[in-house]
Amino acid sequence: MVNQERPDLLLVGLTGGIASGKSAVADRLAELGAVVIDADVLAREVVEPGTPGLDAIVERFGPGVLRPAADGGPPELDRPALGAIVFADPDARRDLEAIVHPAVRARAVELSRAAPSGSVVVQVIPLLVETGQADAFDLVVVVDLDPETQLDRLMARNGLTREQALARINAQAGRAQRLAAADEVIDNNGTPAELRNTTDALWRRLSAASPPQRPSHGTLRP
Ligand code: ADP
User: Fold this and answer.
1) Residues 2 and 137: beta-carbon distance below 8 Å
2) According to the model, what pLDDT value does residue 221 have?
């Protein structure tokens, strides 16, 4: 694991349900000085034209998952076409994940290694708990909110019906399972200003805890 190789970094895993406020927390932590590594961003990077990731996808799913690039460059991934295949077929979905997930993790390790000594490195991973990655981090932070508020924010952000939003929420780990993996819980039931204050307080604890001194948090893993 990276944290054994780089004891001079504090590695934080940031997760939470869809539309819980992970991006809002990560953006604020980045402003405050954290090195933020976002799994969703990496998942797009590792399948850009010219990557081994895109080559592997085309090999598995055929050239039908490519489309001409808007800028006239090499063909790019046709996400809706690939999405239609993998949502209808669990085996196809597993194959896609077997291509994308290792590439994302490898890139995240690479970026962590490049972080300056003493950094607080925050990896934003929507499915951190579902994919069993909690032990890879010094500290797991979960952004949490009431299910009704989550539903409202998801519907508003993505323009979804209640049913569509519920389907997306239900495809993820349950709230209790996520909370069980948390060392720190950020409550995002309040206003954006309250979230910012809570995040600033978290940052103060993280920066006080960043190596060589480790957090004295009771549930911190060794
Ligand atoms: P995630 O990255 O976890 O999916 P976001 O950070 O995108 O979640 O937040 C989900 C939506 O809720 C966004 O539209 C965001 O602007 C909004 N949001 C986040 N926190 C709050 C809050 N405290 N009050 C109101 N809206 C919020």
Assistant:
1) no
2) 45
Confidence of residue 31 (pLDDT cuts 50, 70, 90): very high
- Please name the amino acid found at residue 126: P
pLDDT at 145 over 70: yes
* 168 C-beta closer than 6 A to ligand 1: no
CB 158 within 8 A of CB 18: no
**124 pLDDT higher than 60:** yes
**Which residue among 155, 157, 168 has the greatest number of ligand 1 atoms within 8 angstroms of its CB, and so is best to mutate?**
157
CATH superfamily of 2-208: P-loop containing nucleotide triphosphate hydrolases (3.40.50.300)
Atom of ligand 1 nearest to the CA of 16: 3
Asked if residue 157 has its Cβ within 6 Å of ligand 1, the reply is yes
Ligand 1 pocket, 123 CB below 6 A?
no
Supply the DSSP string of 106-163, one letter for each residue. HHHHHHHHTSPTT-EEEEE-TTTTTTT-GGGSSEEEEEE--HHHHHHHHHHHHT--HH
Q: Which residue has the tokens 């069980």?
A: 180
83 vs 86: CA distance, rounded Å: 5
Tokens of 216: 């004295």
